[in-house]
Design goal:
It is built from two helices and 29 strands. With 379 residues, it is mainly β. The chain has a single domain, classed as YVTN repeat-like/Quinoprotein amine dehydrogenase (Methylamine Dehydrogenase, Chain H, 7 Propeller), CATH 2.130.10. Strands 20, 21, 22, 23 and 24 form a five-stranded antiparallel beta sheet that branches. The chain has a four-stranded antiparallel beta sheet with strand order 3-2-1-29, with no helix packed on it. The radius of gyration is 20 Å and the shape is globular. It starts with 23 loop residues before the first strand and ends with a strand.
Length: 379
């Protein structure tokens, strides 16, 4: 018989608390560095660079992350395949290894819990009230297996309860939703409805998360017939308007921006053609305009929502912002934050832009392949 051990923790937590920001603290995922960058914006400083992951040897690929109403952080680990297939985002879509969602403490980013999800987790979002954590699976490899019928090639939407901190949590609810779903936007405030950009079948899926049967409605983006798994439009991003009445969808293959009406559940309004591939956009607070980052050419556009007219544009010169991925507002809407992926080999950047002129106020160097930025506010 041995007496129970009652000494010091065997694996003590030696993480330092995150420094306080003089301005606004934001967190950025660095997919190629296995780190999170904690930034003080608009001061333009890196407060901390924190390693993230489960595997001490291989790349875990922290992809997107979300912040709950109490400041808790949830990050998706998207393990890359052993040999990357061609394409700018193949690391997010071609793995045969299950992904994970980690819950991190708001004070020092220590892991609090985890849940295994399916291969190639894409987007991760938390409802406004903190009751739902939703994860898509951007499984292009599965979607392109033309030997299987489309219904078998559909990837799932995983739904968890983040209040359990993912520790000893039950298995996620898995809802087969569409081919290669990537971005997801949740209705306000409880996330009862999920709007999912279905890259592989050129649809926006509307998923009822409140009912037991989780009804899925797939709305085609356009009128042209699409071969399942070979998209013409390739909807990649989906962002809900401030009013909750519209979803803006960025199609990277079709190079346009489209709008979905959440009341009529139909595509509506102008189709805005973009020279480059559009990624994650930001609505102005009144919902009248849209700020859209594009790649090839690398630019940021301001678009009038009612007419589709281009209001302003800035094209980035070499060395200023390579592969703009996501744009978001600061807390008081006096500045825009823009994530620049870079070349996925060297570190990328986060820019602070003037919303009126789109001029760069601050540039902050982060890790390799940044792609998601969130404001981190701890109540």
């Amino acid at each position: 018989m041995y007496e129970p051990y009652d000494g010091a923790p065997v694996y003590p937590n030696r993480r330092a608390a995150l420094p306080l920001a003089t301005g606004e603290r934001v967190i950025v995922t660095n997919n190629g560095s296995d780190t999170l960058s904690v930034l003080d914006l608009p001061a333009g400083s890196v407060l901390a660079t924190v390693p993230i992951g489960r595997d001490p040897v291989s790349i875990d690929g922290p992809h997107h992350l979300a912040v709950g109403p109490q400041g808790d952080i949830y990050v998706a680990l998207n393990y890359p395949p052993p040999l990357l297939s061609p394409g700018p985002h193949s690391a997010h879509s071609s793995s045969a290894r299950s992904g994970y969602i980690l819950a991190l403490a708001p004070d020092d980013l220590r892991p609090l819990g985890e849940a295994r999800v399916d291969e190639n987790p894409g987007d991760v979002v938390v409802s406004d009230d903190g009751t739902r954590l939703v994860v898509t699976h951007f499984d292009v490899r599965k979607a392109a297996n033309f030997n299987l019928p489309p219904e078998v090639r559909r990837a799932t939407l995983a739904v968890l309860d983040p209040r359990q901190q993912l520790a000893d949590a039950p298995e996620p609810v898995r809802i087969p939703v569409c081919l290669a779903p990537h971005a997801v936007a949740l209705s306000h405030p409880d996330g009862a409805t999920a709007y999912v950009a279905c890259y592989g079948d050129d649809t926006l899926a509307v998923v009822d998360l409140a009912s037991a049967d989780h009804t899925v409605m797939r709305v085609p983006l356009g009128t042209e017939p699409t071969l399942a798994g070979a998209p013409l439009y390739g909807p990649y991003s989906a962002v809900l308007s401030p009013s909750g009445m519209r979803v803006v969808i960025g199609s990277t293959e079709g190079k346009d921006v489209r709008f979905f009406d959440t009341e009529t559940r139909t595509m509506t309004g102008p189709v805005v053609a973009t020279e480059g591939a559009p990624y994650f956009a930001a609505w102005t607070p009144d919902g009248a305009q849209l700020v859209v980052p594009t790649q090839t050419p690398d630019a940021v556009l301001v678009v009038d929502v009612a007419t589709g007219r281009l209001v302003r544009e800035r094209r980035f010169k070499p060395g200023t912002c390579l592969r703009p991925h996501e744009v978001s507002w600061n807390r008081d809407h006096t500045a825009l934050y823009l994530v620049c992926e870079g070349d996925h080999v060297a570190p990328g950047d986060v820019l602070v832009l003037d919303p009126d002129t789109l001029a760069t106020r601050v540039t902050v160097r982060v890790g390799v392949y940044p792609d998601r930025l969130v404001r981190h506010v701890v109540p």
